[in-house]
Structure formats: structure tokens, C-alpha cells
Amino acid sequence: MSTDVNPQREVTRLCIQCGLFLLQHGAESALVEELSSRLGVALGMDSVESSISANAIVLSTIKDNQCLTTTRKNSDRGINMHVVTEVQHIVILAEHKLLDHKDVLKRFEHIKPLRYPRWLVVLMVGLSCGCFCKLNSGGWDGAMVAFLASSVAMYVRLVLTSHHLHPQINFCITAFVATTISGLLIAKGPFAMTSNIAMAASVLLLVPGFPLINAVADMFKGHVNTGLARWAMASLLTLATCIGVVMAMSLWGLKGWE
Amino acid sequence: MGVIDFLLALLQDMTLAAIPAAGFALVFNVPQRALPYCALLGAIGHGSRMAMMTAGMNIEWSTFIASLLVGSIGIQWSRWYLAHPKVFTVAAVIPMFPGISAYTAMISAVKLSHFGYTEDLMIQLLTNFLKASFIVGALSIGLSIPGLWLYRKRPRV
User: Fold this and answer.
1) Which pLDDT score is estimated for B28?
2) pLDDT digits over A45-80, tens only?
């Protein structure tokens, strides 16, 4: 394969790689469309048209009435704003003519998703759920319960994620663990006077906030099909979480949190 | 409630909101340099919502205006950080997210199918579901509007 024969082919590959990076790491559809087309125009195409669906992306570049179309399958890699930022920086550099298409390819190959250390994420998410409990008037003892339960749950979630378990099953197991710990601490443990809000707060780490916000933003900006797909995915995750919670409640005979 | 009491409560509210904003920014793998701004923006958003709710507005409208504020500040910051505003703003609105309502609605639905129809469960399901949906819509549209409004023609960053 010679690279010099058809630069349009190279640029098409780069554009769809750019779109795929963004889609896999949780950017909204408007951004995927905007950045892949800006990259193509910056690298000399006349225009770039793309069609985005939930699990694939189709993209055409047009130059001198010559079209090239390509398709890639999309698999979700988890939300990673670091990758989105890196791709955006590369596109801006290409727009200012600081990178040509070979440099862009080299930079794309060097993108490594940032991962924060596991203990830090566990600690901060535990503290977050403690704060949620306090914000929802659950008291400081409730915050302590939520902190303990959600730290353990977050650790379980990260371990299961690193084994590539199916997300819904992962959320169900994590919710079961969180409800079990917080519920037993309140019902049988030393926190008998604590408000039941702590049980609700300890599963808040599983709320699919980013997909839901992206879903509404997508639909609001006209990408109805990706928006509906994100909404359905987020609802399934919430349902899986609730099944985990209800399983734990009925297994240990716990009361609800109203 | 005196002014001092209100300010102390507001300060506590903002501190408590800053921690989840930073915590969820870690889950979303926001770049390190942007983390303090996520926390600050989360505190501003939740604090302004609390101030508006104390002044007597209902939760949906105050959420909408707070997320408009977060979205506008996020666009300003995104221009010098050269990143999409969502990098900061989504983590910042997570403390305002109606998680407990969403779970209560879904658990009521599961209980309805387990134990049969009762009016209490149905009321709980409907009110919590509507509340959660409207707050999510307010958050998301509030974040999107500043970008669509101020930068219709040229790209934001």
C-alpha cells in the first residue's frame, strides 16, 4: 500500500478515526460530527458528511466531486474526557496548519486514555456519596454510612469493569453490594438511628448522569436516534441498579428509604 | 433565618457540592488541570440553586437557571483551556442530578409488579419519574442553550 497515491483515502481514515475516538469515549453526537468535519476541511477536503448511529459511524469525504465513504463499528469504551480533549487539541492544531495528515496520524496513534489510580477514585467517590447524603438531609452519621458502603461498592465496580463484565450485570452486583452494606449497617449495625436516605445515597455512584445529559442534548440538537439510544441504555442501567437494590432489600428484609 | 446563618448554610452547601463534582470528574477521567475548575463550577451551580430555592423558586426552574449559569461560565473557560465545555460542565452539574428521585421511581415500578397495584406506589412512581425527567431535561437543555445561543455560526473552541 503506497500512501502517496491518494491522500483523500488517508484523510478519510483520519476523519473516521477522529469521530470514532469521540464516540467511543462519550462525546455528544453534535461534537462528533463537528470535529470530524473540521478535521477533514483542515486537511484539504471540500466537505465531510457523517451519519452517526448508536453502534456504527458512516462518513464520506468529498473533494473535487470525488466521494470516499467508510464505516466503522463503534464499541463503548467508557467515558473519558481526556481523550476528547486530546482529539480536540489535535483538530485545532491541524486547523492552524501546524500538523499535516501524517502528523495527525502519528498523534492519534499516541493517544492513551488517562486512568486515575483506583484508590483515588474509590476514595473520592465514597466521599461524594457521603456528601450526597448530607445534601439530601441525611445527617453526618448517614454520610458516614454512605461513605463506607459506596467506597466498597465503587471498588467492586472498578474490579468488575477491569474484567470486562457486561455493564448491566456489573451495575446490578454493585447496587446489591452497596445496599447490603448500608442497609445492614443501619438495621443491625451501630448506626440504628441513622436516616434511611443513606441507603439511597450509597447507590448514587451508579446514576448514569453523563449518558442521560448527552441523551437530552443529542435530541435537543436534532440527533434523535442517538439520543434515544443513549436514553434507553441509561434507563436499562438504572433498571439493573434498581433490581440489585430490590434483591438486597428482600434478601435481608430491609425497609425502603421513604 | 439571619443573613449569617444563610451564608454559613450556603458555604456548607457549596463545599459539599464541590466534592462530588470533583469525584465524578475523576470517574469521567477529566484531565488533571481541569479538575479544580470542575469542583469550583459544581460549587457555583449547586450554591446558586440553593440560593434560588431559598428565595422561593421551585426546583425545576432553579435547576434550569443554575445550569444556564454553569453552561455560560463553562463556555468562557473552555475558550482558554481549548476543550469542549462539556469537559467541565457535566461533572459540575452531577451534584444537582435527581438520582434519588430516579431510583425511587424505578423501585416503585419494580414493587408495583411484585406486590400488585396500590395507589400509593403509583403516586410515588409518577411524581418521582416526572420530577427526575424534568430536572434532567432542565440540566441538559440549560447546559446546551448558551452554546447554541452565543456561538451559532462559528465553532465554540
Assistant:
1) 92
2) 999 999 999 889 999 999 999 999 999 999 888 899
Cα–Cα distance for residue pair B104/A22, rounded to 1 Å: 33
Position A197 pLDDT exceeds 90:
no
Measure the CA–CA gap between B78 and A98, rounded to whole angstroms: 21
Q: How far apart are CA A40 and CA B96, in angstroms?
A: 38
| Edge-to-edge strands, sheet with A56-63 | A47-52, A56-63, A66-73
Which residues partner with A71 through β-bridges? Answer: A58
The residue written with cell numbers 468562557 in the block is B76
State if pTM tops 0.90: no
Q: Which residues does B156 contact at the CB level (< 8 Å), separation at least 6?
A: B75, B78, B79, B84, B85, B147
Q: Is B84 on the interface with A (CB under 8 A)?
A: yes
DSSP state of B82: T
Residues of B with CB below 8 A from A128's CB? 19-20, 22-24
Which chain B residues have a beta carbon less than 8 Å from that of A216?
A: 136-137, 139-141
pLDDT digit string, tens, across residues B93-108: 999 999 889 888 988 8
Q: Is B31–A28 a contact, with Cβ atoms under 8 angstroms apart?
A: no
Q: What does the pLDDT read at residue B27?
A: 92
Nearest CA in chain A to B152: A221
Considering CB atoms only, which of B22, B144, B157 is closest to A217?
A: B144
- Judged against a pLDDT cut of 50, whether residue B60 lies above it is answered with yes
| 3-class secondary structure, A138 | coil
Look at the block and give the residue holding cell 448491566: A168
Confidence band of B153 (pLDDT split at 50, 70, 90)? low
Q: A110 vs A106, A114, A115, A233, B13, CA distance in Å?
A: 7, 12, 15, 30, 41
Say whether the ipTM exceeds 0.85: yes
Question: Given pLDDT bands bounded at 50, 70 and 90, which one contains residue A1?
Answer: very low
User: What are the backbone angles phi and psi of residue B97, rounded to the nearest 5°?
Assistant: -70, 135
Domain boundaries, chain A: 2-109, 118-252
Is any Cβ of chain B less than 8 angstroms from the Cβ of A251? no
A135 lies within 8 A of chain B by CB = yes
Chain A nearest-CA distance from B44, in A, is: 15
